[in-house]
Amino acid sequence: MPSLSVVQFMPRWLRWLSGLVLAIALGVGLCRLIAESLWFDQLGYLAVVWQRWSVQALLFLAVAGASALFYGWQQHWLLRQRTVTLDPILTAQSTYRGLGLWRLLLCASGLIWLLIVATYHIGAIALQLWQQRSEITFNSPLLPQLSVWRVAELSLLVVQNPWLLVPSLAALLLGLWLPLRLFQGVAILLSVAMGAIACLSWPVVLKGLFAASDPHTEPLFRHSISFYLFEIPLWELLRLWLVNLSVVGLGGTALGYLLANESLSHGKFLGFVRSQRRHLQGLSAFVFATVAFSFWLERYKLLYSTNGAAFGAGYTDVTVRLPLYGWLSASAFGVACLLAWSAIRRGGEGQRRLGPIAPGLFGFTLGYLVVILIADWLLPTAIEAAIVQPNQLQRELPYIQRTITHTREGFNLEKMRVEPFQPENNLNAEIIAANAATTRNIRLWDTRPLLETNRQLQQLRSYYRFPAAFLDRYYLKLSPEQDQSEIRQVLIAAREVDYSAVQRFARTWINEHLVFTHGYGFTMSPVNTAEANGLPKYFVRDIGDTGELLVDPPQIRESIPFFYPRIYYGELTHTYVFAPSAVPELDFPRGAENVYNHYDGTGGVPIASWWRRLVYGVYFGDWQLLLTPNLRPDSRVLFRRLIQERVRAIAPFLRFDSEPYLVVADPRSEQDIAASPSATGVSYLYWIIDAYTVSRYYPYGDPGEHSFNYIRNSVKVVVDAYNGDVTFYVVEPDDVIIRTWQRVFPTLFHPLSAMPHRLYRHIRYPIDLMQVQSEQLLKYHMTDPVVFYNREDLWQIPKEIYREKPQAVAPYYLITKLPIGYTEEFILLVPFTPVNRPNLIGWLAARSDGQNYGKLLLYVFPKQELVFGPEQMEARINQDPMISQQISLWNRQGSRSVQGNLLIIPIERSLLYVEPIYLEADQNQLPTLARVIVMDNQRIVMAPTLEEALQKLFPD
């Protein structure tokens, strides 16, 4: 009722203003809801997003409402009991002297500080989850609990930060003056913050409720892996809520009772009456029940311990901490039961004066904390020093084996096939000729020099950009005599419009939203050749007068569709546009003029009606949308055109690869293509994005330097670059996390078999995943626990020289025939060297073609033989007199030489090393391919082209 009185005495103009502000806020929220719903409906995912929004709203209302009810109930009892006076006769007869002013101030200040720290604690978690809301399922922090150490940590943070210290001191004074108002304010803030945390943690809740079963179990508790991936995070979330409810409820209630009856102004607190004591005992029982629950949960979190010789529960964790946590949980639960019984049992006079609950409870709690300190730190430390350390290998051996096994499972390394590789070093002209498909696909052009060249030769206008280049393979016909297409590794770069590059004076509303709507075309370059002047050779380049991309040789048109190469959705499409409209869209430049076009695709949301224009005018904050006469009845609004943002809006619970890549393909069947080679409305440009399911809760899984210890490349996302359609295909149906999400959103995912064949031929093993797995493999290729413990065979990623600087060799794509294969295939390769030794020890290959997609092969070299690694080959290059002399000469003639990526190419049972040399002018960086260095185990040659170098190295 106080709120009603406030409203009643507000001035009429202020009430009108408040109502207007509320109405505007509700209107804006409604417009955003409608705009988003129309966008998801256009893509066919309206049911998915409404399910998600409904769950989020339900979680917020349930948790915030339950928290508010709990705090409100405590305040209700506090108001009823805080004004109860003590019997003066009993008070005079008692020997208890109460709390003096300074002790009272100390207790009250401590309770107020606890409320402040709890507010900061929950607020910080809610803020961090909000900042990471698009990646909450894999990168959110382990939810920290409100403990003694957490209170000390946050207290130190507040003291060091004046932005937090000033409001904290103000809250401290307010609490001493108006403790009930402070409790009410904290209760409101925490209820909203906990509701927000639950709302943002919707993936955790849904995964816990719809968890798919997994047949694998961990060896300590014998629970299914699903229990740890899905249920433990849900219990963590519940514990966070219960701990803060109980602690804040007890702290706020105790503060209200301490400062009741003007005890602070009287300078003394006489004590609690029986009813107050029973109330505090009930809340204390709640606190100890949450402590019991916390220790029960800590037993399972031992599987993520870092205390032993390896990640996960070690000897001390299993033999000492595990039973102690069980005992602490049981004892805390027993204390909770005793306190609850004491709170509900009848007896005594309601107004009988009793000594403060604080000394007894504080003393017991302090003793309990001492027991926890002994059980959780002193005793395990002593056991570790006295029993484990003298015989650590023997004690920890079975636990090290668990870590090895489960880490390899978590990073999907257990299915990796390991093969010996005995180098024969017998390469000759005959072997090179027999492996022509490999040698003609050796990559000489790295993406960086190619992009620098593209930006100067192929952008055509200042508003065009090539944000990235993508390595892929295509089956092409390169001459009229060819009966069949041959596999060629190529670099593709999309020519996109970057509106930020438009001249400043031309940045008008019409140009931004109606004219500069799309990019046009792409370039395609073979990776292994260059023109006579050293510039890249292009299979596809420029834009012809009729809008066709120029192709050389022309037979490539039989292999790749070139119709409608417009890019409305890409990596630079950060503006929203309206198309078609009364204003023609810039299509492509032709000489001194431009060619214009009108969008005829199916992307975007229809916006012809006035109410939709109003909705999206509010949504974008763009009132010109309501006033422009340039929209047509068939106009659509195309927004959220950045492909990464687009897919993340639909499936924020997945982690997306950092490198989407463009694919040129006709998704139709052979019959449809034969009937209509260039059908109107058919798109031929698609983006493929790899998506991952990840978790940090895989038992015994060592995350290493990552924020997760489980990862699967379970989904391939295909985005239509012209229409914006998004389709999710499941690549790993055995992944328990993706099976769970399929149960949550049954209409979102499609089987991989539903992907059009011409797109399926272009899926590739992602570099991001390969980097993660290769980093884990540096240590976890050792499967013998004794060897692992002694770190006898640690590996490292070798280094190479690029632009005169050493850098780690990144995984690279190549086309080759594996020793176990029968034909050339597209693989991703990364080499390894031993720690502190530069020679090659092995290489990991990830396969990408057909039924072999996703299979890993680790080839290990014999340790007793010397196989040159990248660093040794770089040293051979720099020590060769002819090569070093030529490089020095180039660097003195107004240019500089750039050493490209050193590639190790396996050919049958031998290795070929190839490194390109580029030239750049000091004033204008236009890289040209100057030389190619080719090496085997014994010889090194340099020539202008790869063919010449191979002929010199392996003469007929």
- Helix percent reads 40-55%
Question: Kindly, what is the distance between the CA atoms of the first and last residues, rounded to a whole number of angstroms?
Answer: 99 Å
Tell me the overall shape. Answer: globular
Supply Rg: 34 Å
Mean pLDDT: 88
- What's the count of strands? 37
Q: Find the structural class using helix and strand composition.
A: alpha+beta
Q: Give the uncertain stretches in residue-range form.
A: 1-6, 89-96, 136-142, 348-359
- Strand proportion, as a percent range, falls in 15-25%
Largest sheet: 6 strands, mixed
How many helices does DSSP assign? 31
Show the helix and strand layout.
Elements: H1 2-8, H2 12-43, H3 46-81, H4 88-93, E1 99-100, H5 101-131, H6 136-139, H7 148-160, H8 162-177, H9 179-200, H10 202-209, H11 225-258, H12 263-266, E2 268-269, E3 272-273, H13 274-301, H14 315-344, E4 353-354, H15 357-388, H16 392-410, E5 417-420, H17 429-434, H18 436-439, H19 447-457, E6 464-465, E7 469-476, E8 486-494, E9 496-497, H20 509-515, E10 519-520, E11 522-526, E12 540-541, E13 550-551, E14 566-567, E15 577-581, E16 585-590, E17 593-597, E18 605-606, H21 610-620, H22 624-627, E19 631-638, H23 643-650, E20 655-656, E21 661-664, H24 670-675, E22 685-695, E23 710-720, E24 726-730, H25 736-744, E25 749-751, H26 757-760, H27 767-780, H28 785-790, E26 795-796, E27 799-802, E28 805-808, E29 812-816, E30 825-834, E31 842-847, E32 856-860, H29 870-879, H30 881-891, E33 895-899, E34 903-907, E35 910-921, E36 928-935, E37 940-943, H31 946-953
Parallel strand pairs: 5-32, 24-25
Antiparallel strand pairs: 1-2, 3-4, 6-9, 7-8, 8-11, 10-14, 12-13, 15-19, 16-17, 18-19, 20-22, 21-22, 22-23, 23-24, 26-30, 27-28, 29-30, 30-31, 31-32, 33-35, 34-35, 35-36, 36-37
Helix pairs in contact: 2-3, 2-21, 3-9, 3-11, 5-7, 5-8, 5-9, 5-11, 7-8, 8-9, 9-11, 10-11, 11-13, 13-14, 14-15
